[in-house]
Design a protein that fits this description.
Elements lengths: L2 H41 L8 H14 L6 H19 L3 E5 L5 H10 L4 E5 L2 H10 L4 E8 L3 E2 L1 H8 L4 E9 L3 E4 L10 E4 L1 H6 L1 H7 L4 E4 L3 H8 L5 E5 L1 H7 L2 E4 L9 E8 L9 E9 L5 H11 L4 E8 L7 E8 L5 H13 L2 E9 L4
Parallel strand pairs: 1-2, 1-3, 7-8, 7-9
Antiparallel strand pairs: 3-4, 3-11, 5-11, 6-9, 6-10, 12-14, 12-15, 13-14
Bound molecules: prephenic acid (PRE).
C-alpha cells in the first residue's frame, strides 16, 4: 500500500467517526425539538410550532460562528434543512405557493422552509391567500417584487382585501436558462415559450441570439417547460426546478440580462411574529389626496431615522381620490421608535394597517 492510500484510509476513518458524532448530535437536537413541541402544547393547545424569529436567529448565529472552510451561506443552508426536519417532527408544515410545480415561487418556498415542508401549488395569487385565510395550509408564498421588472401589483392589491399577515420574506437569485427537450432540433428553434416577466428579463439576450424566433407568453415558466416536451422546434425559458421536473436539456444557461436579477417573495400567514433582532415592517396606508400628503406621510420616518426599504403607490379601490401607499421599513413594530412613528402616521392617514413585522430574509 502506498502512503497516499494509508492517508486516505485514515481520513475516511476520521470521516466515519465524525459522521457518527454528527448523526448523534442531530438526533439529540431532534429530540430537543420534540420536547419543545410538548412545552408549546402544554402552554397552548393551539400552539404555533413554526417560529420565524427563532429560525432567523438560529441561522444568523450559525453564520456568525462559522469559521470555514465551508462558506457561511452553505453552512446556513445545511442548518436550514436540519431545522426543517426538526420542525417536521413537531408538525409537518403545509405551504401553498403560486404554482404550478417547478416555478421560482416553489423554489423560494423550499429555500425558506426547507425540503421537509409540504408544498402545495395554487393556480393564482388570490388562491394562495384564500388557502391561508381558511386555515387549509399554515403559510403561503407569493412573489412581491423583481429587481428588474418591479412590483407584482396583483400581490399588493390582494393585501387590500385581506386580513393576512406577513410573517417573513425570502429573496431568490433568478437564473433563466434556454431549455429544450431531447427531441428538439436545436438548429431549428422557431418558437420560445415563457412567462412575460421572464421574456422581459432576457430581452437583450433573445434579441442577440434568437431575433427571429416567435416569443409566446404563457402563464408560468413551468408551463413553458411542459409545452416544449412535445414540440421539436420549440424552446422554453425557465429555471432549474422546471428543467429538472420535465427532464429538459440546457442550450444556454443564465441568460438573464441583469447578472443580479432577483425576486423577493413574502411568507404570508395568520400569526404576529415577535422581534428577531434584524426585522422589517410592512404597512399599507390610505391618504387623502391633499397637497403635501406624501411629505406628511414620510416626514415621521425621516425624523425618527427609520430606513425605508420600499415605497409603492397603488390606486385605492374604495375612493376615487384616495391613494394607497405600501411602505416597507427596517425595524419591528414592538420597538419604541417604530411604535412612535406608527402612531404619528395613524393620525395623518385615512387608514393604516400593519401587514406585519418579520425577520429580514437570512438566506
Ligand atoms: O425553538 C423552537 O420553537 C423550535 O420549535 C425549534 C426549532 C429548531 O429546530 O431550532 C424548530 C422549529 C421552529 O420554527 C424554530 C426552531
Amino acid at each position: 500500500m502506498s502512503d497516499t492510500s494509508i492517508n486516505l484510509d485514515e481520513l475516511r476513518q476520521r470521516i466515519d467517526q465524525l459522521d457518527s458524532d454528527i448523526l448523534n448530535l442531530i438526533s439529540e437536537r431532534a429530540s430537543c425539538a420534540q420536547q419543545v413541541a410538548h412545552v408549546k402544547l402544554a402552554e397552548d393547545k393551539d400552539a404555533v410550532f413554526y417560529r420565524p424569529e427563532r429560525e432567523a436567529q438560529v441561522l444568523r448565529r450559525i453564520m456568525a460562528l462559522n469559521k470555514g472552510p465551508l462558506d457561511s451561506e452553505e453552512m446556513a443552508r445545511l442548518f436550514r434543512e436540519i431545522m426543517s426536519a426538526c420542525l417536521a417532527l413537531e408538525q409537518p408544515v403545509k405551504v401553498a405557493y403560486l404554482g404550478p410545480e417547478g416555478t421560482f415561487t416553489q423554489q423560494a418556498a423550499l429555500k425558506h422552509f426547507g425540503e421537509s415542508a409540504v408544498s402545495l401549488p395554487m393556480a393564482a395569487i388570490d388562491e394562495v391567500f384564500r388557502e391561508v385565510e381558511a386555515g387549509a395550509v399554515h403559510y403561503g408564498v407569493v412573489p412581491v417584487e423583481n429587481s428588474t421588472e418591479g412590483v407584482v401589483n396583483h400581490t399588493l392589491d390582494t393585501f387590500m382585501d385581506s386580513s393576512i399577515k406577513i410573517c417573513g420574506e425570502v429573496v431568490l437569485r433568478i437564473h433563466h436558462h434556454l431549455l429544450v427537450s431531447e427531441t428538439t432540433r436545436r438548429d431549428k428553434v422557431s418558437r420560445i415559450y415563457s412567462h412575460p416577466q421572464s421574456f422581459a428579463q432576457c430581452r437583450k439576450w433573445l434579441d442577440a441570439h434568437f431575433p427571429h424566433a416567435e416569443r409566446v407568453p404563457v402563464s408560468s415558466n413551468a408551463e413553458a417547460a411542459k409545452l416544449v416536451k412535445t414540440e421539436w422546434h420549440s424552446a422554453a425559458i425557465a429555471g432549474d426546478m422546471a428543467a429538472k421536473l420535465y427532464g429538459l436539456d440546457y442550450i444556454a444557461e443564465k441568460i438573464e440580462d441583469s447578472p443580479d436579477n432577483s425576486t423577493r417573495f413574502l411568507i404570508i400567514g395568520n400569526q404576529d411574529v415577535p422581534m428577531a433582532g434584524e426585522d422589517k415592517t410592512s404597512i399599507v396606508v390610505a391618504m387623502r389626496n391633499q397637497p403635501g400628503t406624501l411629505h406628511a406621510l414620510l416626514e415621521p420616518f425621516h425624523r425618527h431615522q427609520i430606513d425605508l426599504t420600499r415605497l409603492e403607490t397603488r390606486p385605492s379601490r374604495t375612493g376615487v381620490w384616495n391613494y394607497v401607499f405600501f411602505i416597507d421599513f427596517k425595524g419591528h413594530r414592538d420597538e419604541p421608535k417604530v411604535a412612535a412613528v406608527l402612531e404619528e402616521v395613524q393620525l395623518r392617514a385615512a387608514e393604516l394597517r400593519v401587514l406585519g413585522s418579520y425577520p429580514i430574509g437570512v438566506l
